[in-house]
Amino acid sequence: MSEALIQIGLVGCADIARKVSRAISLATNATVSAVGSRSLDKASAFAAANGIPPHAKLHGSYEAVLEDPGVDAVYMPLPTSLHLRWALLAAEKKKHLLLEKPVALNVKEFDEIVDACESNGVQLMDNTMWVHNPRTHAMADFLTDSNRFGKLKSVRTCFTFAADAYYLNNDIRVKPDLDALGSLGDQGWYCIRAILLAANYDLPNTVIASRHPVLNQQGVILDCGASLYWDDGGVATFHCSFLANLTMDITAIGTKGTLHVHDFVIPHQEKEASFSASTETSFNDLVTGWDIKPRIHTTNTDLPQEALLIREFARLVGEIKYKNSKPDKKWPLISRKTQIVVDAVKASIERGFEPIPIQD
Fold first, then answer.
1. Which one of 128, 186, 218, 310 is CB 3.0 to 4.6 Å from 27, fit for a cystine?
2. Are both 170 and 280 inside the same structural domain?
């Protein structure tokens, strides 16, 4: 029923908001009820260009969206340096919060945001879309199956794309006052989340950044990597970069099985996604080929992964609004673990590639 739709306001009109506003329109339990930018002209132009419903209110400030009584929840695609201020205000105004990743500049800021959300009874979720794809659920089922995958031994992930000169000089992700975490916060966040997924969200015990990261003249990371170690012998590595060809890979190896994905952040096709999985693979008798080969697992969905994210977020908000439920703690906890590892990688780079112990 239309009255049950969760009313979502957009706090900012960054480019990613185009994709999210489309996702909201595709979800069956949410609608865009307000758009706010730093000027009314910008909000109006965004609404006209992106098919925002005519009933949505247009605001010439972020504050106006947070004050709008017709808004249940907000999506914030603001630069990371602005998250703390606006997230705290959103929570204070009792607006449920879908926050762009990385959630914060560090875990201290992250905890301030979580504390504000918890004390005001609002839901917090980050905008990591790929984890809501049904493929990811199928991957998690395989990775946690002791009979098919066994015990995790190693994970390798990467997310890279070759940014053009304009991007490298002008995008917010290369500006220290806007998104100081650079590639680590943007792409590394996805890589670390994939590693944690493979590890069933058990944090590593130690993180060591890879040597020779690439930083721009302002000190923002353009290319970096790290190794993560667990005391039980598990190891993971990742590489993220604005300077290498588009690649989005996961390789997870267990004592019994192996998983490969080549498009984990954004599938090659919007509504179909695949991964390769194998269990106890082996060579043939003459070792001229494989006797037991990997299998391709394909999942299909009626909605793209970003719309599935919106549907889940709106469902949680609806549980709170209509059933007096408590905010779900799963998604903030997963986000926090991701932030902890991001912090450790950054600290290792800053300390000359020292090993950084992880303390939850």
1. 310
2. yes
